[in-house]
Structures are given as structure tokens and as C-alpha cells.
# Entry
Amino acid sequence: MIGVLALVVALVVASGVYLLLSRDVFRCIVGMAVLGSAVNLIVFAAGRFGPLQPPIVAVGADRLAAATADPLPQALVLTAIVIGFALLCFALALGARLRAQGASDDSDRLRDAEPPAGDPIKPPVLD
Amino acid sequence: MLVLAPVLLPLLTALFAAALYRHETARRWVSFAGALLSLGCALALAVEVDRAGRVSVALGGWPLPYAIEFAADRAGAFMVLVAALLGVAVLLHQAGRADPAPETPILHPLLHGLLAAAGGAFVTADLFNLYVWFELLLIAALGLLAHGGQPRQLDAAFKYLALNLLGTLLLLIAVAFIFGATGQLNFAALTEASRRPELAGVLPVYVALLALALLLKAGAFPLFAWLPASYHTLPAPVLALVGGLVTKVGVFALLRVGQVFAGSPPSFDEALGWIALATMLSGVLGAAYHWDLRRILAFHIVSQIGYLLLGVALASPAGALFFTAHNMLVKADLFLIAGLIWALAGHYDLRRIGGLYRAYPGLSTLFLVAAFSLVGVPPSSGFWGKFLLVRESFAQERYVWGGVALAVGLLTLYSMTKIWLEAFWKPHPEPSALVPVPGLRPAWLAVGLLTALVLALGLMPEPALRYVEAAALGLGRAKP
# Structure
């Protein structure tokens, strides 16, 4: 089971990196989200993946049964999902503003922060 | 509870400032009062920690190591104090008309959010919490980049986001792997767990991943591309706070990781040392190429990060801590001075300004003090920082490391001389632009405050040196 999850994570990371390397700003943002999900899966897997037993101490026992999943990474992954979602929203709004302000959504053309045209130290635009 | 103040006070101030979104004057005053209160609490915390050695509070009602622990040792308290000082100076400067950030309702909440994130990273004793503070730092910095709304700022924000998010994700992966291997998140429990012999093979890999993520956050070679791509679009006071804090939080976290996983292989230090040299050199060479004041100073952040990393690599926390404090103050001071230069001479581009020495000898003096400190001319604060690091390099027979650190000092002098010659000495290309500007008094006060601190740190380094040496004992790693 953990082997299948590892394969899935590898696949998701690969597609996330592929999207992130795209020149299109929107694809780039989707790539960030996909990569974030892969990382969330890794966090999830850190707490023993597989057992269906709920992490509840049985009546009369003083500790969890041996094959219980660790609930802590599940709490951590919730935190990470919330933060990741907020960042994704911010990134999408940023992408939309970039387009609306007339800047390109081609990341190679995002050069507003660079020295203005005609400046002798301006690095050349790569085509 | 004093140990929670570096997190709670800025967060509360941010909340109050956000609630006052319709009242600009009240917002400014609440924000400034919050910063002053933070400074007072930081001072109290530093004194308390100096007396007790370590102050901690465990939240969540669980026994340690399952509770979420916040703990301030001397190193953390020292950083909290410097950050609080920066907060006060930056808010003062923001009140003047030296390139202030636009007073949008979100500005002060974001500034305090940044301070809360840095404070949290300095006092947390929990690995996952450290990750959360880095996220908050990222979000606050992004907000500060984007809230001005100019195309160049949005452009910079996107680059900052894309590259920093990668570091954040790496950090989270490393935290997950380390938790999976050790079952712990608390720093003390992690130190305990990292000694288990069955983890000796796999744990260094995870620690290396963690260090890689933190190096990206710190702006180390070759992962610093996000920094010169974005910092120069920020207004002067915000730039001083972001430039003074963000990367140093990364370095401080590296120091912490070095303390927590003290049993890491010595090859880590070796690698870190060479990374430090490359960072120093690439930063200072990048600065030599540019003509925009903010770009020059932003590249110098990278170069100075190299010195901090050298301190970490030499396992010399005293040197690294002293240099961090010196660097945060001097860097913020120089950015604030750059804001004044912009207001008085009309531009950040060195080719379009000049004549400031004749018109404003006071500003020239302030700049010289800060510039000499950055270069490390004795008896400035930079001299003591570099002295500690270079002495340690030579003591450990790392002659190349020490030599490069000295040579980079010379190249730094080149950049500072360039600013001096262009902005201060040569006549202004359009003398009519050199008119007196009203409303600069708070900015002068902020620059004066920081310069006085830098000067005091240089002329009387004893108290700070004693404090960081005591702090280093707490952070110290046994040399193999």
C-alpha cells in the first residue's frame, strides 16, 4: 500500500514540476498547487499509512493499540492544506492582477521589475 | 508568558490595526505603540533569559514532548530584541516622507505579521511550528510586495512566490520525513531521538533536505535568485524590515537545526563553508555591477548572508549571532538612508543623483558610519563581527575561508565607495532637483536611532559580545 502511495506521490510531483516549469503563469500556479498536494500526501504518509483502526485508547487500556495510525500528521496535514489553499488563492489573484494590468501571462515576458528599456545595464530579453 | 510576547504582541497589534481600517491616524499610532510595547517586552525577555538561562512555556495541556513548546534561550532573545528595534525604527521612518509605503489599510497588519512570524521563528521549540512561522513570513512578505499594486511590484511578488514556495514545500517534506523517522517534533526530543543508532543512516539525509530548504530561505548561493528579483521594488521602510529580517530568520533556523541535530556528519559543515564563500562572492560581485541603490544593497544582503553561513559552518555561533545582529541593524540603516537619499536627491539611480555631501553633511556622516560598519573598518560593529569569524577560520586552519572573507570586505568597500563618489561627492547632474523636502523629521530620527545603535555596538561591543558568547554556549556544538 505504501509502495502505491510512493508511486502516486512521484507521479504527482513529476506533473507538478512539469507544470511549474511552464512559461504560462496560470499553469505555473496550478503546478504549485499540485506540488503542494504531493507534499501533503508525504506528510500524511509520515503517520503510518494503512491501518483503519481509529486512534482512540480503548476503555481500560492506557495506550493505543500497536497498529493504529498516528493522528498527529493528519492534524499537521490539515494545517498545511489550509495554508496551501490560502497561498493558492493569493497566487491566483496575483496572476489575475498581472494580466489585468497589461503585463503578460508569459513568465519570460514578466520583466516589469527589471531595469527599464534603454538602460545600458538591462539584461537582454530571451526569446 | 513573556516568551510568548514576541508572537502575541505583534499579532494583537496586527488585529487592532486591521480593525481600524478606516482610521489612518489611529492605525499608525496603534501600530507604533505595539512596536514600542514589543520592544519593551523584548528587553524584559532578554534580561529574564540572561538571569534564568532559558525560559519556556508548553501549550496545549500535554506533557512535554507532546505539548507545543515555546522557549527563548539567549540566542533567541537576542534576535527578538534586534527584530523589535528594527520594528520601531521602520515604523518611525514610515511616518516620514522618505519613500514611505502607501498607507493602505493592510500595511500595518502586514508589517506586524512579518514581525510576529520572525518572533515566532526565534522562540519556537517545535519543528512544525518553525514551518508555520516560515509560511507566515512568506505570506506577510508577499502581501508587502503586492499591496502597492504597481506592475513591477506584482511582477516581483510572483517571482518571490514561485521560488520561495519551493523552499517552503521542501521544508514541509523535510519536517514530514523527520517526524516519520523519529516520531518527534519538539527540539529537545528530536535531539534525544537523533542519537538512536538505527537512524544514523537515514536522518542525515533528512537533515540535509531541511538545511537545503533553510538555505533557500536564507538566500544562499545558488538559491538566492528570488532576492535580487524582488527586493528593490519595495518602498524604503518596508525594504528595511524585509531585508533586515527575512533572510536572517533562515540563518537563525539553520543555527537551531545545527543545535538540534548536533550529531550530523562533519561534511555538512565543510559543504556549508564553501556555500558560504560562493554566497559572499556572488553577492558582492552582483552589487558591484548595479547602479540602483536598492539593488546594490539587496545584493549586499546576499553577500552578508555568506558571512553568517560561514559562522554556522565554523560552528561558531557567537560570531554568527553577533554578525547577524550587526548586519540586521546596519542593513536596515542603509536602506533607510537610501530612502532619505531618494527624498533629498530625487532618485535611487546613482547616475542621476549627486551633490549630497555639500548639501547635507549630516546625511553624509550617517552614511559613512553605516557604510564603514558594513565594510568592517575598525572600530565599527562590522569589524568585531568579521574579527570573530576570521579569527575562528584561522584557528580552525581554514585559511581559504578566512582569506575570502577578508577579500569580500575589500569588494564591499568598492561598492560603498561607488555610492559615496556618485551620490555624495560628484555634483548633482540637475542641481535644481536638490531642494529641501518637508516632513522628513521622523525618517531622520529613525536613521539617527539605528546609526547610534550601530555606533554603540562598534564602540562598546563588550555587553553584546558577552551576551552572544553566553548564547553560543547554549547553541554550541561539540567539535569532533
Summary: Chain A has a mean pLDDT of 83. The helical segments of chain A are 2-20, 25-45, 71-100.
